[in-house]
Amino acid sequence: MRLPVVLHLVGGILRLYAAAFLGPVAVAALYGEWWDLAGFTLAGVVTLAASVAAWRAAPDVPSDFRRAEGMAVVSATWLAAAAFSALPYLWVGLGPTDALFEAMSGITASGGTVLTDFDRYGRALFFWRGLTQWIGGMGVIALFVAVLPRLAIAGRELFFAEAPGPTDEKIAPQIRRTAAGLWKLYTALSAAMTAALLATGMGLYDSLCHTFAAVGAGGFSPHPQSLIGYENPAAEWVITAFMFLAGANFALQYRALRGERRALVADEEFRTYTSLVLVSAALVAAFLWRADVPAATAIRHAFFQVVSILTTTGFAAADYNQWPEQAKMILLALMFVGGCAGSAGGGPKVVRHLMVARYTLKELARTLHPRAILPVKLGGRVVPDEVMRAVVVFMLLYVLVFAVITGLVTLLGADLVTAATATIASLGNVGPGMGRVGPMDSFAHLHPLSKVVLVVAMWLGRLELITVLALLQPGLWRGATWRQRPAGPTPRVPPSVTP
Q1: Which residue among 65, 180, 252, 388 is the one 20 to 30 A from 268 at the CA level?
Q2: Cross-strand bridge partners of residue 2
Q3: Rounded to the nearest 5°, which phi and psi values hold at 225?
Q4: What is the CA radius of gyration of the chain?
Q5: CA angle, corner 435, sides to 281 and 118, nearest 5?
Q6: Alpha-carbon distance 215 to 206, whole Å?
């Protein structure tokens, strides 16, 4: 691995990411928040200076750009983006650990927060929280592959190292056109949602903040009580609809808009995703109705909260910590599912659960018919053995990482419900959990080391474990060099560890 090449590409991406600070600078100027304006300006300058220095580590991207280097670029970019995104939080008085937690939660579109007194902070800061989720929802790498010509050589490796889920869905033959097409759709959905929220009577500032968080499947709200604080049922239905779209495969949505009308309904994952929403919402609504919640309110809250949790957005239209245990159990199960592959949602993804379920049924049948040839099929196509193996390995790793992190957070003083739901909310990029990290609470009371562990969980979850864990192989780093063109072969990541 050639470290100057990695730094060069990380610097190139962050050089453009520095422009994102112009958004909150404009908001701070509009509302006269001059202290915050100075902080965001300084953060942008520091980010730009550091990115230019990293960019100069190598003269250019070599033509033999390697997959391991792509994974290193993606992993380092998310860490660096979180670190620089934390600067405004430091400026307004958060400690280093809390600032990094809030920034990582934003850029990974997680939605867990350590903020407790929202009145202490200006509008520019909440705009920044939402904007980082909007950028992180589709993926920093996908954005800059689309707009940075110098990444054209390495674009495919970067895009697929970051792209979530085991999917080979393409909407254009060139990777830059693919990323650009997805971002056009992403922007169009954002504009449509902002207009729809304005039509419900929500103000422009709040509409933009909620649009950023919903389309990016993030969940940050400028109100400390999330959607509860707005008492706007129409806005809840609008947000529910766009959260559902944010959790669906963007490539399929793009194809549907281009004229392939059955692109979505013909997809098995989308049908399963839709069925999960309908069945789960119906069950939750029934349990709420039995708990004396009016039928119309029960249906609205059930659909909103089921879609919010399944898509890993994390908004709250009610304090579901107070719901019946049966309803909470359904929401907890959905935290382990996630959205569709190729969506803004986090989690393991619906398609992986679908593939593992079919693989399990085939293995059970094979115990009775050991000589039978029983391939796993998805969408009418046979799933290759190497893909199926990678999916099973991913799911096993996901459970293992969840168990380890839950154990660590518990050992650091949290009760089991809080530790387990804080872990899955971070690893799955869901946002709020249950217990003392529920929708009306925050992560602020956790032990500082617990917050650091959960920051790592959010980072691992957003990059779907493999991208980061593959870099822990010792053989990979034995070949690392500060020379751009080292002599001799560089150790490669075995294909079996890539999703």
Answers
A1: 180
A2: 481
A3: -105, 20
A4: 22
A5: 95
A6: 14
- Residue 377, beta-bridge partner list: 382
Distances in Å between the Cα of 276 and the Cα atoms of 261, 262, 263 are 22, 20, 19
Q: Is 36 helix (H, G, I), strand (E, B) or coil?
A: helix
Q: Which long-range contacts (CB under 8 A, 24 or more apart) does 230-237 make?
A: 230/202, 230/206, 232/200, 232/201, 232/202, 233/300, 234/200, 234/201, 235/197, 235/200, 235/201, 235/202, 235/210, 236/300, 236/304, 236/317, 237/300, 237/304
Tokens representing 46 are 């520091």
- How large is the greatest C-alpha to C-alpha distance in the chain, in angstroms? 74
Cα–Cα dist 395/407, whole Å: 18
Rounded distance between C-alpha atoms, residue 129 and residue 211, angstroms: 12
> What Å distances lie between residue 488 and 460, 467, 481, CA to CA?
31, 25, 11
Neighbours of 141 (CB within 10 A): 26
pLDDT tens digits, the chain, 499 residues: what are they? Answer: 778 888 888 998 898 899 999 999 999 999 999 999 999 999 999 999 999 998 887 777 666 677 788 888 888 999 999 999 999 999 999 999 999 999 999 999 999 999 999 999 999 999 999 999 999 988 766 766 665 554 554 555 565 565 666 655 555 556 677 778 888 899 999 999 999 999 999 999 999 999 999 999 999 999 999 999 999 999 999 999 999 999 998 888 988 888 887 888 888 999 999 999 999 999 999 999 999 999 999 999 999 999 999 999 999 999 999 999 999 999 999 999 999 988 888 899 999 999 999 999 988 888 888 877 788 888 788 888 888 888 898 999 999 999 999 999 999 999 999 999 999 999 999 989 999 999 999 999 999 999 999 999 999 998 888 888 888 877 777 666 666 554 445 445 444 433 3
**Which residue type is seen at 30?**
L
What stretches of 336-489 show up as alpha helix (H) in DSSP?
A: 350-368, 385-411, 416-427, 448-462, 466-469, 474-478
**58 phi-psi bin (left φ>0, alpha ψ -120 to 50, beta other):** beta
Measured in residues, the chain has a length of 499
**Rounded to 5 degrees, what are φ and ψ at 338?**
90, 180
